[in-house]
Records
---
Amino acid sequence: MDLRNVAIIAHVDHGKTTLVDELLKQSGAFRENQQVAERAMDSNDLERERGITILAKATSVEWKDTRINIVDTPGHADFGGEVERILSMVDGVVLLVDAAEGPMPQTKFVTSKALALGLRPIVVLNKVDKPDAEPDRALDEVFDLFANLGADDDQLDFPHLYASGRSGWADAELDGPRKDLNALFQLIVNHVPRPRQQKRKDEDFRMLATTLGADPFVGRILTGRVESGKLKVGATVQALSRVGQKIEQFRVTKIQAFRGLGQQDIEEAIAGDIVSIAGMSKATVSDTICALAVDEPLDAQPIDPPTITVTFGINDSPLAGRDGKKVQSRVIRERLFKEAESNVAIKIKDTPGGEAFEVSGRGELQMGVLIENMRREGFELSISRPQVIMRDGENGLEEPVEEATIDVDDDYSGAVIEKLTGARKGELVEMKPAGVGKTRIVAHVPSRGLIGYHGEFLTDTRGTGVLNRVFHGWTPHKGPIPGRRAGVLISMENGEAVAYALWNLEERGKMFIGAQAKVYEGMIIGEHSRENDLEVNPLKGKKLTNVRASGTDDAVRLTTPVTLNLEEAIAYINDDELVEVTPSAIRLRKRYLDPHERKRMSKTA
């Protein structure tokens, strides 16, 4: 059967996974009466909840006499490690662009990787049936983006289609019949070349491992594209590291190919196929699986270095161990190193003492997803504030800069620009109208300046602004950037919070807890209305007397407390604070719980 390998890349929420759903349906991958969940490719619980693609996944459809392997890639730059590896498996890309928004930062990030690999893109302008769609403008912006990213003449001469993924149609003309996705299938077959690896069927077997999985029955599973030769079940092969060191020799126990949403056992894989194999015990991502006669590994795509680091430690608060089952540092260490093995964009380092671990990654969202997965698995952790990783460059100490693209109502654009270019040391790059009453702002802002900014941004824009960010490059260190201005309210007692005490504390600031919440000494229970920290007693009840007077027994009515989610909590804390994460709770606390230690620290400060 004729073969095509293609990846679909897009910005978050541009309709990529919905389009893949329609491709699967119209290719006959599902039975007519089969019940299929919406966004079927988003199989992970977090992906469904957040509406984003986190893990790169492959699927396969048959159209006429051609098998098309489709790779669904993450749209967020924090998961760029997935994108960089997965693009090495395909021969073409479909770039999906929202006809109203145009190419966005994550589009730019993934497209630059695809163009650098020499892949010729197909552009699909999605959601053209929306009332605010401007497909012609979006198409011009895509061309400008390709030119700015250094695309060659062949890549600039890209074909394009107009589509609506939700309605299930794609046409070469804007006023086409709007019936089905046949135009997209046909364009993929005509434009994407056959795998060049198919010409190497008679060579020794080689395959570069790009993703790592596990199965409770067959153990470790590696997925990749066969670069040359053939592989049969039962064959003995070896694994080579990036530098050519022999890792292990093993017998292949299973070969699986992607068929629709599932995988099917096959007896033989040939050059060009994207398959998963089992039987190894040590081989991992970026290793070369090859015949015993091969001694040179395949080139692995380089991964961009991490930009932030977060310290994961054991939960040593007074409430530790009441909620989760996995609380020991040994168990946390094993889980983190297991994550780093399959996710090459994450680096783990032990700290002196062995009670905490420095985890380096690409962004706050990537860290947040890892922590959320661990708390759902029963872990209890203490998490530090993210720190930006600096480097020694040509200009001395350099720090990472991100390109922030912001769509905001005209009324709030002044406040946003003032915040970004003032204390946060950003530089305004572009400002232009983005539809009726909207402004698009593009700024280069140090990564340090954007940590903790998102909550403030939503407040400044009354929740209507949209902020997208992507790694841009490095710049000389810009000096100190102030963090959170407000102080916090710190509990000075252990026990359960009393409604009467919280009611009296409301004039001091915003509360993070409600009545009967468990608190302990050093726990942060609210935000102070002033810049200094304040120790308070949330357990202080009302003194009872036998005197009754009008107004003394009014019911206590508390303001609804502010509930911080995981990313907001991590971004909110200062350097001397921690986030306590358990399966059912997210608490903030001071790093120093001991009152004598806290008093000593405040004196030295």
---
Amino acid sequence: MNYLFSTSAVIIFVSFFKYESYGETDFIRDVKPILEHNCVSCHRKDNAKGKVRLDTKEFAFAGEDVIVPRKPDDSSLYWTTTLPSDDELVMPPFKHEDKDYPLRDEEKDILKDWIKAGADWPEEVILEPKKRLPKEVTFVEYIKPILEQNCVACHYKGKVKGDLRLDTFEHAFSSDHIIAPGEPLDSDLWVLCTLPQDDEMFMPPEGNDPLSPTDLFMLRRWIEEGADWPESAILSPQKKSFTVLGTMPKDLYKELGFKAGQVQDDFVGYRQDIITSNLTFEMLPIKGGVFNMGSPAEDKNRGKNELLSQKVKVSDFWMGKYEITWDEYELWMINLDKDNREYKKMESTKSDALSDAVTKPTAPYTDMTFGMGKGGHPAICMTQLSAKMYCMWLSARTGKFYRLPTEAEWEFACKAGTETAYSYGDDPKELSNHSWHLGNSRFKYQKIGQKSPNPFGLYDMHGNVWEWVLDQFVPPSNQTPEGILVNPLVSPNTLYPRIVKGGSWDDGAVNHRSAARMGSEEAWKQQDPQIPKSVWYHTDAIFVGFRVVRPREIPTLEEVEKYWPSEADILAIPSR
């Protein structure tokens, strides 16, 4: 944490918070983490056990006795947490001694004080389910990585900002205001990370990712439990950039036992089950071949960003029959996959461990459907990194190698053997039979698969939402390349722009042509209030989604980072 002021200034600043107003229980800082990590997974829109929902204020206060402002003892949210662990009504449920545990006394007190003070809950705040923390938050396993990835780079022997070091026990506890065991509200280490992100004292400072809600909650628990720090533990700065990947692509590739060059002979369509849910998705075989990628120079509708028609050869692959829906995407995005397993009491498997190790996004700041619909609708607003990570998670979940298509694969599948502007012909007046576009979409995306498929049987290749491909956007050449390009891919090396294909519900007919392409922009995150902007969400790209492919031939270990998140993806993220 890069402290901008001297230690004495920090002491003065923190003393400001000794006022009673700061000691009052705050919903965002104190209550929200408790509910998200302990309650919401079983009490939300799509899993309302006991007909109780705790994800929004409206539903949390809908019952007569769940939250009774100023009366904690009459509020089941509080009094059920005080029951003996063997009581069938105790919350959180205590069913498996090895993984379940009651709320800690500090958490019970926070709920009690919050309700007693009136149970203030800002209307706009929507809670998201987060996994429970381990019973014991040990320093080496949980706290050391948080400090090394977020704080130590500016506060260790080689770089001591603000006269503060956090690399050894001796220095971290040299003053009682840096870490006050048992008192997170008296600990600068935690307090400064909970400030509004536009506050000049907020830590980590601008240019760095804030601590995730889980990391903050973990840090608070560690301090409340006494802030145990083995004196032998010495910390060193660690790059945070690669932690976004969780399990690294090459490691997952090895764990899944992929064999480079292996070809699946049974090249037919299939339905992929996701065993932890009731969901399936269909994959269609796309026999590779040579085609004309891009648009001819004489095409009066070709845009300046389109490739000039060139011969390209692609290999065999399967492609998703439909765009990825919210139903599928949220299994990874908000960890419903794991929640489903726990609810169904499914026996743990290696696939569970591998898929759980793939990093999940931070919670979105708002409803990413923007009121356009969820069930059966295409998932939107994800960054290309998020789409790649979903593919990596899906591979871990199913044992098959899934990824985004290259631009060449996507266009080959879209054209489906045709040479016309659209896969059905050249007449834009016929577009409404095949696409959701600006003229018929009613200004929002629609459920997948309602229009006619293309000749390969793929739905919504024209319109509904633009779809991510793997390639970096580079200005097209004004000359046709000689020869035939084989499986071309422009691997990304900058964050913007990257390519989306196919047009959307918010575009006219020209952008729905098979050769149309568009580059991503930083403006796609304009409404994101986070500092820095999220690596997971494009809050203004309500017209962008994706579908998956599966190559018939397994790539080599060296090639895997062309398709799953790579070092280039992370290095392209603005400096933290």
---
Amino acid sequence: MPRDLPIGNGSFLVNFDNTGQIRDIYWPHVGQENHTSGSVCRLGVWVNGNFSWLGDDSWQRKLAYSKDSMVTESVLENRDLGVRLFLRDCVDFHVNLMIRQVTVENSTDSQLDVRLFFCHDLSISGTSVGESAYYEPQWQTLFHYKGRRWFMIGLVRGWQGSWKNGLDQWAVGIKDVRDHEGSWRDAEDGELSGNAVAQGSVDSVAALHLEVEAGKQETGWCIMAVGLDYEAVTGLYKAVLNKGPIVYLRRTDAYWQLWSSKEEEPCASPPHFLSLYRRSLLILRSQIDNQGAIIAANDFDIAQFNRDTYSYMWPRDGALVASTLVDAGYSEITRNFFDFCHRVITDEGFLLHKYTPDGSLASSWHGWYADEEKRLPIQEDETALVIWALRRHFERFRDIEFIKHHYRGLVIRAAEWMCNYIDQETGLPKPSWDLWEERYGVHSWTVASVWAGLQAAAEFAGWFGENEHALRYRQVAEKMRKTTVELFWDDPSGSFVRTLEPRGKDLEKDTTMDASLVGLWYFGMLQPDDPLIVRTMETMRDRLWVKTDVGGMARYENDYYHQVSQDVTKVPGNPWFICTLWLAQWYIATATSPGDLEEPFRLIEWTADRTLHSGVMAEQVHPFSNEPLSVSPLTWSHATYVATIHQYNSKARELTEQ
């Protein structure tokens, strides 16, 4: 299920699903730890004896954000109950507080007795073993805790300086043990048991009662404070009671509006493109940890696929996102990312498959042993692209003191390893895993990224006066470029090939069409208007375009991942946002007149049309229904959109000035 509304501050991330209910709570890192394990934290509404959870079919929903902000602004209506809910949610930009404002509008001609039930189904630190939850009469709130993870949940009613704290009802109970479904079931008759404590696998429900006159509105607030101990969370909650929750909502709204407009925005695109541009920047920020990890995605439902998630930092994804943020002017985030990479790079000079947000090594399916010998479990592009992105960062911000710290331990260390991880006969990189993490060999994308990484390292070496290093890196890169043109071109198919697969001492061409061939020009090894690139891209468009009413570009021919159709002639794979935007970027790069921008405009429009109403982009969409597939939001999708808008506007200005 997509996460329609992520909100966070870089250490505390809350995801809402398409019903407007909480599905993920991450803290103290974005992506680590998930304190719900994907379980829904229900919100129920009881009106004059009738009850409905927000997940029921009786609700009509419009889930959205406040303009250019990471504060939600959703409307949900239930005509059977006669109420309309206006939901505004935020994670405070500075402290670890979640504020949920619920305004209930009575759409009937008589007074309504409304009871709001806030259920919190937590699995603290990812497991429901050994938790405690209790009602505390002094604060009139609920506490959930386990070890150094504390959650304080309170309810407040009122508006504009007149605040009343306290729960009207509560219940704490056992969940998912024997026949205990959870305390949330206790809410459905509009009355809670008042049970004050439970331990083990537990949940809680807090109720707020509102009397709403005909045609009028009443407002209630749910506040969640997160911290390491009792003192930390009660301190946060006390501040909310002193200032009022509206202060935190307003200041967070103002902060994100300021953040999303800090740089001069692209000006040649239509308004809805620019609105999605700013929304994409905000969604990107929600997926980035304050300690530097750029997380691929935090949609926990993907765990159903293989009992693992996307809540990791892949150096490749991170580098491409960082490159986009460089263009957008967010140097603080990119500095943290490069600091992270410097902390985790091996002494030998390579980055491994993926990392947890705290910098430890993440789960991997790349083995250390194959064919009776040791094999590095790496995707070499992940090392190379970090150096490529770091060069782009420095050229944009010229922060010499920052680069000085990373020159020897990150740039030179990685460049020396890349120069040594070479087949001496061909001059190509030795085999590694491809960017899709599925094939072992020598890949066009990887070769192009290593070329770009070495060129970036050569520039750094020249800036720091180490000309011998610079010369060596350029020589290795040049031999790599020449060999790539010789060995990766395939006359029969009229295209470059995606992979040279090792077959003993030989390399066998894999001619499966793959969108990753864009790397050959994207990173600068070949020009986008090179005749061989033009033939490759035209062949790619023909063979990877999804020939249904949905359209879009597939990843590669017969893509198995979340495969919907076996008719690979019509549906070579599900359409991906990234791959469709890559095609748009090539059209932009080769445009020589304003008319040439019509096709990339249509592809950007395709992307915007398949984005959720909230502005969230998935990884893929269903080739027949347009429904999001796999994780949603995918950080890389949003970064590619932002990059495409920058490139489109830059080219539009260039062609206008000619």
